[in-house]
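Hi U.,

Before I forget, here's the chain from the pilot set. I'm dumping it here mostly so it's searchable later in email.
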Amino acid sequence: MIVQKFINNVLQSSWQLLKPAFDAPTAYSWQGLARLTVFSFGVAVLCWVLGIVWVRELSSALTQVFLIFTVQWWGVYYNFKLIPWVTGALVSVLFFGNFTGEIQKIALIAWPIFSGLIAVLPDFVDRDLIIVSPPPEKRPGIVTLVSAQALLSCWLQLGFVVQDWVRDYPVLLNDDFSRSAVLLEIEPISPQGIEFLKAIEAELTAVLTPLSWQEVQQWLQPPQRQENMTQVIQKASRNYLTSVERALWQVDYTFLNQAAGYSMQFVASWNGPQSRSGIPAYQKNCTIAKGFIAENGFQTVVVAVVCDRAKRVMVTPDSPVE
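Structure:
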């Protein structure tokens, strides 16, 4: 009984605080729309408890619609200057977030446009909801406002496009944006082609160094070399590249049999999107030779993989890499 009485007191106190906000002077007021919003929300909650799906979805949509009109009417009543942008955000969520369960990128892109249209709507509709022509002195301001909001939407769209490009093609972060009017290079990073060749070097070293020199010679023989190197390159690409980029990097290598060991030259070519003509390629030379370490007065033969620093070379589709 004490708990029930406490709950009743809390509910009554809450209602006394909220009641003035819902006291509608007339049905045709923002308070009346607020009552409809609360009623629709209550029906949606009740249908959610009872499991009536279609009524719940309809009530949820009506709740959002009534909330949009309530907020807009409240802002106009109290002359809140930023209310079109608040209402525009609610409209974007209604159109692009209600049925998906999450707010999509398109909702943020459309938000400035919705806000601009809502801001200029009173200039085209009078109090009797009749379409009228705006006064000539207001037309430049209307054009400026709508154009600015459209430009902001375009910038947001560009930002998301660049974000998706960088996610799918991280190599674009290595490009030169010094002459770009819309992109700014935040911080220099190591070119991805160089890092990819480092990954190949690390994988090649991890495979060969545990082997004996005789096993390395067999590993590098023509029947097995192509298959072994393909596995090394594929594993390095899986460990370092994104799934989209793997098909856009081409790795070629040349093999030389030298007196002191073997020499391999790797060339990684990028065939994806870029800002300049030509094919960006990265080159790294590696030497595989016998090494010796002293253990207990004896020399033990080990395999040494030594690679130089990778460098970038720009080539055309028909020219060879030097």
